[in-house]
Write a structure and sequence with these properties.
The chain is an all-alpha fold and 418 residues long. The strands form two sheets. Strands 1-2 form a two-stranded antiparallel ribbon. Strands 3-4 form a two-stranded antiparallel ribbon. It is elongated.
Length: 418
């Protein structure tokens, strides 16, 4: 640890100075020797560091978005070389190099915090060994050794012996209970943060090495914190638990307001946006306009949730514009299918053709005239009202036509040419 401390000695003095300045503020409120004063000083140090790292976090988000835009190309490579894992990995690395993306970009905040983490560890370790360091003089050292957080000294560790804990005026059982609870909370918060990223903010339609890496980190990091946490002083556990809670809240905000395309978080976001826009008839915030603008620009490349959003606006009589605004549509907008092609508008059905008697009935009704009487058919007329046909001279008494001869009046035969 001395080698690591020497490597990060350039940042030990600034970290100790920041802790001292916060301690002056909280010491005036809670008392100089209280665990609240020293504990809140460490929490404030975390908040200050994370605020300084916000530009790096924004860069991480942009890098993650760049990785998401490569998902279709990565899926093609995966399908093309599905039987050759080595060639698949080579093509993936080539794609990363050509586009300037880095699959390890999600680790940037953790790597940037490492110097502050080791500096704080060295400061607390010096307090446990009764050594002054940086801006912490002897009087502050005595005050820090008296500070207890839930009965555990600030510099105590889970692996300390009973004699070491007794020297810090504490109980070994209390120290181990407090450190064990903090280690469990630290590992659980790390696991939940990574799981939230994997289950809500990842396009699950594409299986890539990047996703496998994130899934692996979801289990590796909590185990690492649990294993190494028993060697961390209570003050370092406070630091790491605070930064995990900050990361979890920061990520929840990003997932809710800027989700990854194709993820479950995007489906929930677009559903909320559809209800909001349909209710107010316009897009209010600038971020929402940027989202609508990006969806319109995609055209037929929209995913399932984005097509559902466009169709929802169409049903509400609205149409998304290229500048991200939403206007009322005078004409119905064609609904898109799953492949992005608009459905054809249904053809107008022609009315059924009416018979002559129906048309005459309709005309008579329109003119107010009585309906014309229709003649009875042969089957409908009663037998006693049937008129008897007059017999023609020369027809004889035959009542039936001869076989092979048509009924009704016959055409006279043409005279023979003989």
């Amino acid at each position: 640890m001395d080698t690591i401390a020497s490597l990060f000695s350039f940042i030990t003095t600034p970290v100790s100075w920041v802790i001292v300045q916060f301690h002056k503020v909280y010491g005036a409120i809670f008392g100089d020797d209280t665990g609240w004063a020293w504990g809140l000083s460490i929490v404030s140090l975390v908040i200050l560091i994370r605020i300084c790292l916000i530009p790096l976090f924004v860069k991480q988000i942009k890098a993650t978005r760049a990785m998401q835009t490569l998902q279709p190309e990565m899926k093609k490579i995966q399908e093309r070389y599905k039987n050759d894992k080595q060639r698949q990995s080579e093509e993936m690395m080539k794609l990363y190099k050509e586009t300037g993306t880095n699959p390890l970009s999600s680790c940037l905040p953790i790597l940037a915090q490492s110097p502050f983490f080791f500096a704080l560890y060295h400061v607390l370790n010096s307090i446990a060994n009764n050594e002054t360091i940086g801006a912490i003089n002897q009087s502050l050292l005595d005050s820090a050794q008296k500070a207890h957080i839930f009965g555990a000294p600030l510099a105590a560790k889970f692996t300390d012996s009973a004699a070491d804990v007794q020297a810090l005026d504490a109980s070994l059982t209390t120290v181990r209970i407090v450190t064990a609870v903090m280690i469990v909370l630290m590992s659980a918060s790390q696991f939940y943060t990574q799981r939230q990223l994997m289950t809500k903010n990842v396009d699950t339609t594409v299986k890539t090495p990047f996703m496998q890496q994130q899934k692996m980190l979801m289990y590796i990091f909590p185990v690492m914190f649990a294993v190494f946490g028993i060697n961390f002083p209570v003050g370092v556990l406070v630091y790491w638990l605070t930064t995990n809670v900050w990361t979890m809240g920061q990520q929840m905000y990003v997932i809710r307001n800027n989700p990854t395309p194709g993820s479950k978080a995007q489906a929930a976001y677009l559903e909320r946006l559809t209800k909001h826009v349909s209710h107010h008839g316009k897009v209010r915030r600038r971020g929402e306009r940027n989202v609508v603008k990006a969806i319109v620009a995609k055209g037929r490349d929209r995913n399932e949730y984005e097509r559902k959003f466009i169709n929802g606006l169409s049903k509400a009589g609205l149409a998304a514009q290229t500048d991200g605004t939403v206007l009322k549509s005078e004409t119905p907008v064609a609904v898109e299918t799953e492949d992005g092609t608009p459905l054809a508008t249904p053809k107008r059905q022609q009315p059924k053709r009416q018979s002559k008697s129906q048309r005459q009935t309709g005309v008579a009704k329109a003119a107010g005239e009585p309906e014309p009487k229709t003649s009875l058919t042969k089957s409908d007329a009663p037998e006693d009202t049937k008129p008897t046909a007059a017999k023609k001279p020369g027809s004889g008494t035959r009542s039936k036509a001869q076989s092979g001869q048509r009924k009704g009046p016959q055409r006279p035969k043409s005279p023979s040419k003989k």
